[in-house]
Amino acid sequence: MSNKPSIPKGTRDFSPTEMARRNYIFDTIKKVYKRYGFQQIETPAMENLDTLIGTGGDESDQLIFKILNSGNFLSNVRVQKSKFRYAAQDDCQLLDDALIGERYPLSLLVEPKEILNSISEKALRYDLTVPFARYVVQNQNDITFPFRRFQIQPVWRADRPQKGRYREFYQCDADIIGSDSLVNEVDLIKIIDDVFTELFQGKLDYTISINNRKILQGIIESVGEQDKFEEIVVAIDKLDKTGIDGVKKELIQNSISENSVEKLLELCNPTILRNSIPETMNLNDAEEALNDLGFITDNFEDNINTQKGIEELEFVFEKLKTLGRKTANIKFDPTLARGLGYYTGTIIEVKVDNFPSICGGGRYDDLTSEFGLKDVSGVGISFGADRIYDVLLDNDLYPEFKGDTTEVLFYNYGEGEEDICLNYLFQLRESGINAEFYPDTVKQKRQYNFAVKKGIRYVITVRSEEIKKGVLFLRDMESDTQYIDKTIEEVIEIIKTN
Length: 498
What we know:
Layout: H1 16-35, E1 39-40, E2 46-48, H2 49-52, H3 58-61, E3 66-68, E4 92-94, E5 103-105, H4 112-119, E6 120-124, H5 129-138, E7 147-156, E8 168-177, H6 183-200, E9 207-212, H7 213-222, H8 229-236, H9 239-253, H10 258-268, H11 270-273, E10 281-282, H12 286-292, H13 294-299, H14 304-323, E11 329-332, E12 346-351, E13 359-364, E14 378-384, H15 385-394, E15 408-410, H16 415-430, E16 435-437, H17 444-454, E17 458-461, H18 464-469, E18 472-476, E19 481-486, H19 488-497
Parallel strand pairs: 1-7, 9-11, 15-16, 15-17
Antiparallel strand pairs: 2-6, 3-6, 4-5, 7-8, 8-14, 9-12, 10-11, 12-13, 13-14, 17-18, 18-19
Helix pairs in contact: 1-6, 1-15, 6-14, 7-14, 8-9, 9-10, 12-14
């Protein structure tokens, strides 16, 4: 064991100051969610592996942190001899570092998928949507539909850590399930507008990109590659990360012809559509967006899926035109794909310049059928709290936090004054003032330095003379004002007034 402690890559510790900032984000989002009628739930950090596998697509399956069964997990592994891939004894293969993280001979670990169920039955959730779908199915008899739920909890992904991308991070989800009304999409977009208007204070531009999976489906069908829908969507979703060349390479690796690839990228290229679809528009300009959707209509008028997707977007833009906006910009982006496999309709993503997405979501029509409940449509969004934290920090948008810190410190002068100070201390706390008593009898300078380092504004001295008079000595460290011979009631009034 190393003598130097550390934490896993892609995770972080948070200091008291950082927690105050994080709670500011959580509280802001929670307040808006409640304003829109959402109710809070929580689900376990771990789910059964078969709950998670296959629901988000192959790409998501690779990012799941599996949990090893307890005990000697390899003792229960049973693999038919005919299925072993024999290799030299010193040859090794890394079996999914998210699963084990150690090396074993190929002759021992030959078919990872076959032995997976023998060594792992549980996993850490990679998002909050799939556990929510499971929750809905299990609790359907106790839920009033449409159900508006919000959830603020951590998730884990075996991703490569980098700026803005973590292995452990918090999601702040809001979903409406049990209704296929597109009014719900409008509501969620307005939530995004409300949250970022409050967090960014009008000082930072952000863009809500919107597309519809049905439009993507129609584009993919138009080049005859509908059987490769999931692979194409996953590749297009990486356009910002890998660029056009990276997307081309991945599509060709998935056995999509070069001719089809060129057609796909041409149809999805925002530059080609720029004269017809605005790069960015305010919600107040939704009328312009409605007109520009005619470009898609004209080019895919024979495709049922595309036309349905256009109708859904037109409805959303019509409502947004009526409702207006606060600070949001909106962008129709035909390349927006959202890599999770369960999306079926409207998809949404929010970005600020030079940063990964800070919010995303979309419509999923039948996710609960994975758990036996068919024909239940839902739509949701998820704020990425950790990325929002970084954006606010980089742009100096946090307010000054005082409420979470100690406001008053009682100096400790020994046992004679201790009981009196503790009595006063409890009176301050009962009045709603954050206060503490220095626990050790040490020199006043050390106690003073403690108050300075913690940013404590007031210090109180109670010595023999004050005890005799039944008063206190209060010092305002911020203004260097001294209040002599004040009663506890007067001290409380001074602190609350200032």
